Amino acid sequence: MNSVPESTSAAGHGRPTAGVPGSVTPFPGTGPRIAGEPGGDPAGRAAPAVQGPTPLQTLRALGSGPRGLVEAEAEVRLARTGENVLPARRPVPWPRRFLRSLRDPFTSVLLCLGLVSAVVSAWGTACVILALVAVSCVLRSAEEHRADRSTASLRELVATTATVVRRASEDASPVEREAPVADLVPGDVIRLRAGDLVPADVQLLRTDGLTVHQSALTGESAPVVKRALDVPDPALSGAGPFAQPQWCFQGSSVTSGSGTAVIVATGGETRFAATHDGRAGPRGASAFDRSVQGISWTLIRFMLLTPPLVLMANAALRGRGLETLPFAVAVAVGLTPEMLPVIVTTALARGAARLARTGGVIVKRLPALHDLGAVDVLCLDKTGTLTEDRPVVAGATDSGDLPAPDVLRWAAVGAFWTLHLAELPTADALDEAVLDAVEEYGPPDPGEVDPEAYEGVAVLPFDPVRRVATAVVTKPGRIGVHTLVTKGAVEAVLDRCALDRDERDRLLALADRKAASGLRLLAVARAERAARAGAYTPADERGLTFLGLVALRDVPDPSAAAALGVLARRGVAVKVLTGDHPGTAARICSDLALHPGGPVGADDVVTADSLDGLSDAELVSVADRATVFARCTPEHKARIVAALRAGGHTTGFLGDGVNDLAALHAADVGICPRNAVDVAREAADVVLAEKDLTAIGHAVLAGRRSSGNIATYLRITLSSNLGNVIAMLTAGLMLPFLPMLPAQVLVQNLCFDAAQLAFAFDRPAASALRRPTELRPRDFLRFITGFGLLNAAADLATFGVLALALHNASGDSGEAAFHAGWFTENLLTQALVMVLLRTGRGAAERRPGGPLRAAAAGLAVIGVVLPLTPVGPLLGMSALPPLYYLLLGSVLGLYAVGLTAARRRYERRHAPEAATLS
């Protein structure tokens, strides 16, 4: 154990000295530097010639000490340096948010069309289009701002905290307390334990078996040993900052051990901020982003082709010139689902807020809610999800497979002192199971091992790389002797024992036979060493004497079977990625009937070592077929998840430990429980109240509700808009005048857009929630083409109705009446489409909810009443004769019958696709 003295002259009293503003980073590469110290680039590529100051020099320079800062001084420094947050997490100003909304593909095209209209002096068209752009941007900005506020407030529930040492006054004793990471300042003394995120750039003061992951900064997957250095080590003088053992950087995570450190840089002054500011690549597009972009750019191509086609057709057939440009622009606008950004943001934000309110599930990234609804493969570990968190000891045997209570008692010695000395964030379930079993055995007989007779000296906690834990203990009366008790994975323990090859192979075969029956095995070994004052390291775990095996069995979670059944019925396949033995994993999965084809067999279980020889393409096939992956390392988990995504699956991963971090990043949706380690919670997209499959089922359902509303909006909007565009283009070539004036087209479009906001508040029917929701551009295009043509047929049939009703009209009055008639028919058919094409197959399911019913009714009322009001003449419309309404009712009745029949036929022929569309 390395340490710095608990008292330091003149350290920790008062404010930082002049020239040390409270954010000094006394190591190369970031922030202000102590005079005379060499620099370095933010990525750490420069190799400094010196290691930087000692812990005592750093504490003095920062005006701090091992007893921590005074609370009042910490508040002063916080006001001076600002919160310990990365620049990217700061609130986005409203003007920037508004301008960012203009980057949406549809909004950009609308803006261009409005500017073109202004250039040709079509001021009415330009004003309406620019008004649409402004309304869309304002609504989207407001909804994003509201979503960000909701997400920020939800994130506070799982905000990362750190254990900080502070004092109430100069003379008060130091007190450890949990403080938000944002409140940490340079000079704060903090405690680090396994599972913690390193909250800032720090210099270590004391350590005990500390290892950290630095992959966020260096790309190295293996943990790195860190230790405090009271004096510079000449052997490290030429090493880069990440190789220096006394420095830990923000973005790292503690994998094992513990330590005390002083913060030397926070916020934008950290090396993590310098490395990622403007140089880190953006997060890959989510499944939702890819789907919406595919649909968007297909429609944009149509929009960009529409104006020149209208101009050329009118010039060739009607001899019209640029006077038809406003009409052509209005037709292109009519094809645009300009409210898509608003609908998407509103639907997802409402779904996320509802999940947080009713299920305690926090969605940290709004598009992840859609991806939850699209998840068709969920990857998870079995412990704590399919099984209860604490296994049960089934027995203990020696190397000859004979009952051996002393093996369990030695394991209890290691478990007891590991729990008391390792400063773990949570107690290990295996250790607690061993201690519970020893209590049931009762007091040992004379000559047997007595766990209470030993005192702890040191501990090397378990980490996923070593796969063992070692406790160093001593027995009163045996002066000068330390006993090392090592327990962990069978292979890892045997590798550390003094065994010949034949004996090792025999023990491995014995362990395999026991594990194949579904037992979890904990190997136990010990060794005696001469007592010493120096720190113990993993290098001391050699030459051990094998004692035996402790067998444990998992207890299935009572709710797991029912939750797995619900997920299966909703089309979500579950795959188990575990570090356990294949037999152990297969047994619990068979007990829970996880595999839909029956018991989990050999073909359904893949060991991780067999994956190492597979190419990425081969792994895609294996990952799709297998149900259980055993003996997985963190890298294996991430690679399996990536292979599933490459195979076309939308993949979720549920994890709660440091070893799950890579897989959480690799998945479409990273999921973790609220009690997960800090680093996993920060990496996840969704945080559950508990590690419970039932909660995931609720979250998937919420994602499908939001996505179903978005899909319904797109289907109805695009099919209706396409039908109107086809009809207007056809009518424009047949009539001696424009079928609708540009202002009429845009007002009609604005009314329809306003009504469609109701889709964000709709409740999809049950049938829309049975399968994963995925927005597939090809399926959408096929749907909107068929129903768009049907809509166009209804519009063109209205020509006959108008010709019959207005046969005596002529001149301007005839044109105004025609415009009014088609305006009314368009809004009525759009209201009808909103009702009949809503998500759901049965008639009862298609019955719209309150908001949607009210919106459709309001749209119909506007269509009928607006031409009769004083606004009608201003828009170039006049009143219609009663005969028109009678004939229009017949057309609408036939259209409703045709629409219903077409939908039923579509659903029969494309049932799987209809499920994905919904």
Automatic annotation (TrEMBL):
InterPro entries with a match to the protein in the record: ATPase_P-typ_cation-transptr_C, ATPase_P-typ_cation-transptr_N, ATPase_P-typ_cyto_dom_N, ATPase_P-typ_P_site, ATPase_P-typ_TM_dom_sf, ATPase_P-typ_transduc_dom_A_sf, ATPase_P-type_domA, HAD-like_sf
Residue ranges of domain Cation-transporting P-type ATPase N-terminal in the record: 49-122
Ranges for region Disordered: 1-51
Location of this chain's protein in the cell: Cell inner membrane
Gene Ontology cellular-component annotations: plasma membrane
Membrane topology: Multi-pass membrane protein
One Pfam assignment: E1-E2_ATPase
Taxonomy, superkingdom: Bacteria
Protein's UniProt keywords contain Magnesium: yes
Catalysed conversion reaction: Mg(2+)(out) + ATP + H2O = Mg(2+)(in) + ADP + phosphate + H(+); ATP + H2O = ADP + phosphate + H(+)
Keywords: ATP-binding, Cell inner membrane, Cell membrane, Magnesium, Membrane, Nucleotide-binding, Phosphoprotein, Translocase, Transmembrane, Transmembrane helix
Gene3D superfamilies tied to this protein: Calcium-transporting ATPase, cytoplasmic domain N, Calcium-transporting ATPase, cytoplasmic transduction domain A, Calcium-transporting ATPase, transmembrane domain, HAD superfamily/HAD-like
Entry keyword Transmembrane: yes
Biased amino acid composition, Polar residues: 1-10
EC numbers on record: 7.2.2.14
GO MF term set: ATP binding; ATP hydrolysis activity; P-type magnesium transporter activity
Signal peptide: none
Enzyme class: translocase
TM segment ranges: 106-139, 780-806, 818-840, 852-871, 883-902
PANTHER family attached to this UniProt entry: CALCIUM-TRANSPORTING ATPASE
Role noted for this protein: Mediates magnesium influx to the cytosol.
Record-stated family: Belongs to the cation transport ATPase (P-type) (TC 3.A.3) family. Type IIIB subfamily.
Protein name: Magnesium-transporting ATPase, P-type 1
Lineage of the species this protein comes from: Bacteria, Bacillati, Actinomycetota, Actinomycetes, Kitasatosporales
